[in-house]
Amino acid sequence: MIRNPLFFAIVIISLSCLHCSSVSQTNRPPLKLSQVELLKIGRTTRQEVLTILGPPKAKMLFDAPKNIEAWNYYDGDVKPVPRISLSFDEASGVLLGKTWNVLQNEPESNLSQLEKFYPTSNFTHRDAPWTNPHSYPDEEFYEDKEKGIQITFSYARQKVQAISWLSSTDRAVSSDTQK
Q1: What is the value of pTM for the model shown?
Q2: Burial letters for 86-107: b for 16+ Cβ neighbours within 10 Å, e otherwise?
Q3: How far apart are the first and last CA of the chain?
Q4: Which residues, in sequence order, are CB contacts of 179 under 8 Å at separation 6+?
């Protein structure tokens, strides 16, 4: 059962850099979590993202569950996983979701440190669904559905892998599909 279609779309977008429709090669300073936090779900537009982050290295279009334009940003050369993944409503150009992929030695890779970054959040724990009968899932999730924040934590690596934010509309749709 997919609990949040947009979250899984963002993850797929993050991992599908080999099928990019448009690639922009830019030299930029390393990306920072503080830049991602400037981007407001449901308010920030593509043009504002271009002003804050510059052009993405990859752009993709998806037509399910709705028309979504996805942008991926990488630190340095293109790597298997983007540093930042963004999704926009194609028609309005408004930001729907964002994901920050965490590196090993960053402060936010430590779960207890990361929870201190968001002291007013009320995180609930959820294990990843068991989809492979031969392997137990490595991930668990910490979610604050009201604020739209989801932390993906790896059991094996004992580190935060990603921080994602979703629009309230997509959170409402997601919670409806869980019933």
Answers
A1: 0.77
A2: bbbbbeeebbbbbbbbbeeeee
A3: 11
A4: none
CA dihedral of 7, 9, 13, 14, whole degrees rounded to 10: 20
DSSP label of 19: G
Query: Which of these, 1, 2, 3, 4, lies nearest to 167 by C-alpha position?
Result: 4
- Exposure pattern of 4-43 as b/e (b: 16+ CB <10 Å)? bebbebbbebbebbeebeeeeeeeeeebebebbeebebbe
Residue-by-residue DSSP string for 64-89: SSS-EEEEEE-SSS--SS-SEEEEEE
Q: pLDDT tens for residues 111-139?
A: 988 888 888 999 999 988 888 888 888 89
d(C-alpha 152, C-alpha 160), whole Å: 6
Task: Single out the residue of 119, 125, 124, 118 nearest to residue 155, CA to CA.
Answer: 125
Question: Taking a C-beta distance cutoff of 8 angstroms, is the pair 149, 143 a contact?
Answer: yes
Q: How many CB atoms lie within 10 A of CB 125?
A: 10
Residue 65, preceding peptide bond in cis (omega within 30° of 0): yes
Beta bridge partners, 88, equal 69, 95
Residues 2/166, Cβ–Cβ less than 8 Å: no
pLDDT tens for each residue of 30-81: 899 999 999 999 999 999 999 999 999 999 999 877 899 999 999 876 678 8
